[in-house]
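Researcher: Go.
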Amino acid sequence: MTATVADHIPPEFRQVTRPPEMSPKHRRELIECWAAVTNAGGPVVPLGFPLPPVGIGQVAPAADGLIAGLDPLRSRLLLATVGDDLAGWLLVRRDMHPLIAHWGEINHLQTHPRFRGRGIGTALMRRVRELARDEMGLEQLHLAARAGMGLEGFYRRLGWREVGRWPGALRVAPGDDRDDILMLLTL
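Model: Structure:
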């Protein structure tokens, strides 16, 4: 496959901090991305989702719940676009309880399969680091990654470190239990 000029366009970022800020176009693209990533074997199947294959109708309620919970202090979407297309997204959230308000959690890092191999996931993770520190005042970020996907190396290259595991916590299929890897990034 020959690279085109469009393959080298860096992503632009947009934060969505409140439900009314989510355009219908970006909502639709987020749902389509989530379904495509799930169906391509991505480790982003939330509780309540059926195992792949999934359709738009199955993903939409989870996406709408996520969007409904947006709040500038607690939960933000970070969208990466290339041209007019959603290339990837993630969610950063925190609990405001005083004991844990200094750290946040990254959920649902996704790159649309059409944009894989173009550094979208890396760009999202670098941008969320700045956003979490500079705009949300966080000192740490946490995430959980499914073992067996090669994700540990991706996150380590970005400065994250493994701090623990829940052995066999994720049952991908009968006889295929995976560790849930707990990772930390100090900001």
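Model: The first helix runs from residue 24 to 39.
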